[in-house]
Amino acid sequence: MSSQPLSARQRLIRSALELFTAQGVSATTTRQIAEKAEVNEVTLFRNFGNKHGLLLAVLEESAAFKNLGESLVQRATPPGNVYQALKDYASESLHALERVPEFVRSVVGEADQFPAENRRALGRGLTEANRYVAQYLAAVIQQGDLNTYLPAEKLASLLNGMILGYAVIEFTSEFHELWESRDDFLENLVELFLHGAMSHPEKSATVSLAGSMITREVIDLPAVLVHEILRQAKRLGMQDYALAYILFGAGLSALEIVNLERSHQIYDPQGHFLQITTPGFIRQVPVNQWILGKHYGSYTNNPLIKWLKSRKDAHSCMFLNEAGTPISESEILGRWETWTQGLLTPQGQPPAIAQAQNTWCVEMLMRGMSLENLSILTGCDRTQLQPYAKRAREKAALEQATHLDHKPA
């Protein structure tokens, strides 16, 4: 069954967009648009009044960004990988803009010549696109996948503003060195957005950003609770045990664990290390065989090594979900909640996954590691690590007081 032929009005809008895209708004005449649409100019004037009236219709009826926004909203239920969803949205938005570079240049360079109604239409289009992104962000915030100190609408405005700014710079200037490539911009955009304006709930005490930790508050876990969490994880299987082991034995965040590959581990009788790769930064972290006074294997035979040796698949990722695909941050958080079900911290709260990282950092300092060396392992500067040092001093003072209490006067 053949599709319905386009009306004269629809042909004029399509032809105008094609010509605006190819040669800009100012360089396009109403005669050219009418000829391409195979109508006379009188029809154009009767439908739109003039070229700017036609531009107004193009701005109002182009559904490209609305469709992108609707597609993003659909990814909120059920919640998936937020990082990937936002990166895909940003990438697809740039692709949409890159298909119409001359149109973008014209709108940016000639907007002051447009009637107020055209500028308002452009504003309405941007607002509509923003509304869908805000809907998505509001959904994942409500579901608990992200924490933020800004409203969803403001976050959406920041994201879309940065995407549009990239396109304007790329289309209007050359030979700048603001970013290495389009992919470099996208990766850093989403990393900055997620870990600057937003944070994952399991990292309420510590937000990881490109390999560094911005500390808000340090609340570590007592040894008896840590060993119970590891015991509960072990009961659920080899992979759960390995996950819990590197949370407490290497001080990694869930995001860092998600990005681990099997090739990122190095071990021999002298040590066991993991290579952590974040945009623009690579570091190595030791996997401790001793965790808060208890021995968890050796450098060549511990829960992580046993898990990897048990694998029968050829997948490169270090940890997989039930479907055999790379595990996500939300899935790691789900496992943490299973291990810690019914457990409470001394503050009377359920243990948060960020406290594993806090506990590791404090333990390293308690064992005598310097702030300078901890800075190398974590990628943090000394200022960011000061709260950990303060907590380590508090624990050392308590240990000394307890030791003195055991001595006779």
UniProtKB/TrEMBL annotation:
Keywords: DNA recombination, DNA-binding. One of its GO terms (molecular function) is transcription cis-regulatory region binding. Gene3D superfamilies: Homeodomain-like (1.10.10.60), Intergrase catalytic core (1.10.443.10), Tetracycline Repressor, domain 2 (1.10.357.10). The keyword DNA-binding applies. It comes from the Bacteria. Residues 29-48 bind DNA. One of its GO terms (biological process) is DNA integration. The keyword DNA-binding applies. Signal peptide: none annotated. InterPro entries: DNA_brk_join_enz (IPR011010), Homeodomain-like_sf (IPR009057), HTH-type_TetR-like_transc_reg (IPR050109), HTH_TetR (IPR001647), Integrase-like_cat_sf (IPR013762), Tet_transcr_reg_TetR-rel_C_sf (IPR036271), TetR_C_Proteobacteria (IPR039536). Residues 6-66 form the HTH tetR-type domain. This is TetR/AcrR family transcriptional regulator.
